[in-house]
Design a protein that fits this description.
CATH topology of the largest domain: Outer Surface Protein A, domain 3
Strand order of the largest sheet: 11-12-7-13
CATH superfamily of the largest domain: Ribosomal protein L6
CATH architecture of the largest domain: Alpha-Beta Complex
Helix content: 10-25%
Order of helices and strands: EEEEEEHEEEEEEHE
CATH class of the largest domain: Alpha Beta
Distance between the termini: 26 Å
Largest sheet: 4 strands, antiparallel
Structural class: alpha+beta
Number of domains: 2
Strand content: 35-45%
Number of strands: 13
Length: 172
């Protein structure tokens, strides 16, 4: 049995398999399989109970509890990932456009590389840093990994060609 306190100015709605959390930074919606888990909202707390004493239902209750806690953090504080732009050989330029990040002149390539922005995530480029923010942790982390993966070097020696964009910090 897990209990979570609902933060102030946060509304949570549980209907069927969908959980919707709304706060000052937006809303986060998630579909969760609740076959072996029972969720009850009582006042300012949420209790998550496994229906059976099997290990699978206990672990599912813990997973759903972590998801709801991450949703609370996202709508109250938000999630932020910071990436660093590094280049030794060719100066690359990074621009955040609508729905994608464009990386030009990476290793002197003529065609720009692109990375998709997931959901309602915001991407800012400040000097040699890229700041990815949002209320949904899955969208923010997916966007940061898309940017990092777009500059992955395949056929060169990584010890010599250390260019790329790398995640330096993550959290709330």
């Amino acid at each position: 049995m897990t209990t979570l306190e609902i933060p102030k100015d946060v509304n949570i709605e549980i209907t069927g398999n969908e959980i919707v959390v709304k706060g000052k930074l937006g809303s986060v919606k998630k579909s969760v399989a609740m076959n072996n888990v029972e969720i009850k909202k009582e006042g300012d707390t949420i209790t998550i109970n496994p229906k059976t004493k099997r290990r699978k239902s206990k672990s599912m209750a813990g997973t759903i509890s972590s998801h709801i806690d991450n949703m609370f953090t996202g709508v109250t504080k938000g999630w932020t990932y910071v990436l660093k732009i590094l280049y030794l050989h060719f100066p690359m330029t990074v621009k955040a456009e609508k729905g994608r990040v464009v990386i030009s002149n990476f290793l002197g390539e003529r065609t720009p590389r692109t990375a998709d922005i997931a959901g309602e995530t915001k991407v800012e480029v400040k000097g040699d840093q890229i700041i990815v923010t949002g209320s949904n942790i899955e969208d923010v982390s997916r966007t940061a990994s898309n940017i990092e993966r777009a500059t992955r070097i395949k056929f060169y020696d990584r010890r010599v060609f250390q260019d790329g964009i790398f995640i330096t910090s993550k959290g709330d």
